[in-house]
C-alpha cells in the first residue's frame, strides 16, 4: 500500500472516528442529570472534519507498524474528551478512566509486538509525572486553575507522548498545553466571554498540545533551543 493510499484511508477513517467520538461524548453527557441541551445537527460534521484532519496528519507524520492500534485508540478517546469538555466543561470518568486503562493495555501489548517494549518505562514515568504536575497545580489553585477532570486526563497524555520521546514528546506537550490554554483563556477574558472566576475548558488545550508534540515535537524543540 502506498503512503498516499494509506493517508487517504486514514483520513476517511478519521472522519468516521470523529463522528463516533462525538456521538459517544453526546451519549455520555445525555446520561447525566446535568446534561446540556442537545447539540445542533451540524456539530457532527465539524467533528467529522476535525477527525479527518487529525487522522490525516498522524497518518502522514507518525503512524507505523503495530503502534497504529493504541494510537488510534488514543486519538478517538482524546477527541471524545475534547468534545465533552467543549460542550459541558466536563471530562467524565466514564471516558477518562476507560481511556487510560484500555490505552495502557493496548500500548503494552502492541509495543511488545512492535519491539518497542524498552520505551514502556518512559510511558509509565510520563503518566506519573504528568498526573503529579497537574495535581500540584490543581491543589495550589484550589481548583480555580482548571477542573479535576483535566488532572484525570493528564496521565493518558503523559503516557502516550513520553512513549514517543521524552523531551520532544512529553516536554513539548506539557509546555504547549499550558501555552495554548493560557492564550485561549486570555482571549476569552479580553472578549468578556468568560469571567475571572468561571471555569475554562482546559482539556482541549492539553489535547492539542499533545497532538502538536507527537506530530512536530522535534522541530518545535529544535526551533526553541536554536538548533
Q: What level of helicity do the residues show?
A: over 70%
Share of β-strand residues = under 5%
Helix run count: 8
Mean pLDDT: 89
Give the low-pLDDT segments: none
In whole angstroms, how far apart are the ends? 35 Å
The count of β-strands is: 0
Largest sheet: none
Inertia-based shape: globular
Helical/strand content category: mainly alpha
**Topology as H/E string?**
HHHHHHHH
- State Rg: 17 Å
Short account of what is shown:
With 227 residues, this protein is an all-alpha fold. It contains 8 helices and no strands. The relative contact order is 0.11.
Describe this structure in words.
The mean pLDDT is 89. It is globular and about 45 Å long. Helix 3 packs antiparallel against helix 4. The protein contains 8 helices and no strands. The chain is mostly helical and 227 residues long.
Secondary-structure map with pairings?
Blueprint: H1 3-30, H2 43-61, H3 68-88, H4 93-114, H5 120-140, H6 148-164, H7 166-190, H8 203-225
Keyword list:
227 residues, mainly alpha
Amino acid at each position: 500500500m502506498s503512503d498516499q493510499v494509506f493517508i487517504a484511508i486514514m483520513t476517511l477513517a478519521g472522519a468516521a472516528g470523529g463522528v463516533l467520538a462525538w456521538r459517544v461524548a453526546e451519549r455520555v453527557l445525555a446520561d447525566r442529570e446535568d446534561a446540556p441541551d442537545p447539540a445542533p445537527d451540524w456539530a457532527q460534521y465539524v467533528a467529522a472534519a476535525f477527525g479527518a484532519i487529525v487522522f490525516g496528519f498522524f497518518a502522514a507524520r507518525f503512524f507505523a507498524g503495530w503502534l497504529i492500534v493504541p494510537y488510534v485508540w488514543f486519538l478517538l478517546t482524546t477527541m471524545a474528551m475534547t468534545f465533552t469538555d467543549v460542550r459541558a466543561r466536563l471530562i467524565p470518568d466514564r471516558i477518562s478512566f476507560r481511556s487510560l486503562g484500555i490505552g495502557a493495555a493496548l500500548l503494552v501489548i502492541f509495543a511488545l509486538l512492535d519491539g518497542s517494549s524498552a520505551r514502556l518505562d518512559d510511558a509509565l514515568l510520563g503518566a506519573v509525572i504528568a498526573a503529579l504536575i497537574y495535581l500540584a497545580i490543581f491543589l495550589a489553585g484550589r481548583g480555580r486553575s482548571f477542573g479535576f477532570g483535566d488532572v484525570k486526563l493528564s496521565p493518558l497524555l503523559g503516557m502516550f507522548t513520553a512513549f514517543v520521546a521524552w523531551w520532544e514528546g512529553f516536554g513539548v506537550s506539557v509546555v504547549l498545553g499550558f501555552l495554548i490554554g493560557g492564550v485561549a483563556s486570555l482571549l476569552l477574558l479580553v472578549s468578556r466571554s468568560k469571567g475571572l472566576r468561571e471555569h475554562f475548558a482546559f482539556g482541549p488545550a492539553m489535547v492539542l498540545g499533545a497532538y502538536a508534540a507527537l506530530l512536530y515535537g522535534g522541530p518545535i524543540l529544535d526551533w526553541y533551543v536554536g538548533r
